[in-house]
Amino acid sequence: MNGAIRQAHRWLAIIFTTTVIANFVAMALGQPPAWIVYSPLLPLFLLMFSGLYMFALPYVGGRRHGRRAEG
Questions:
Q1: 46, 12 in Cβ contact below 8 A?
Q2: 69: left (phi over 0), alpha (psi -120 to 50) or beta
Q3: Of 6, 9, 11, the residue nearest 48 (C-alpha)
Q4: What is the pLDDT of residue 62?
Q5: Which residues contact 53 (CB under 8 A, 6 or more apart)?
Q6: Terminal Cα distance for the chain, rounded
Q7: Percentage of the chain modeled with pLDDT above 70
Q8: Burial of 26 (0-12, 13-18, 19+ CB in 10 A)
Q9: What is the pLDDT of residue 26?
Q10: pLDDT tens digits for 26-35?
Q11: What was the pLDDT predicted at 6?
Q12: Is 23:37 a contact under the CB 8 Å cutoff?
């Protein structure tokens, strides 16, 4: 499952980047429609949740699998 979340996080980053670029292009051409302006928000929130999940993995996983022997 961790691999799928990492892969989804990568694809979400690509989608987010393209929506931000499209937003800047649309703004350069004039007043963009609202759906273009707000289109980066969904991938951004999904990136936030998947990033927080991956950030918490080492801390939660360390407690679940017991402590490692320190050397």
A1: yes
A2: beta
A3: 9
A4: 65
A5: 5
A6: 30
A7: 86
A8: middle
A9: 96
A10: 999 999 999 9
A11: 94
A12: yes
What is the rounded CA–CA span in Å between residue 13 and residue 44? 8
CA atoms lying within 13 Å on the CB side of residue 46: 17
Rounded to whole angstroms, the Cα distance separating 42 from 20 reads: 12
Q: What is the DSSP string of the chain?
A: -HHHHHHHHHHHHHHHHHHHHHHHHHHHHSS--HHHHSTTHHHHHHHHHHHHHHHHHHHHHHHHS-PPPP-
Q: Which two tokens stand for residue 30?
A: 């004039």
Structure tokens at 15: 């989608």
Angle, in degrees to the nearest 10, between helices 41-64 and 2-29: 160
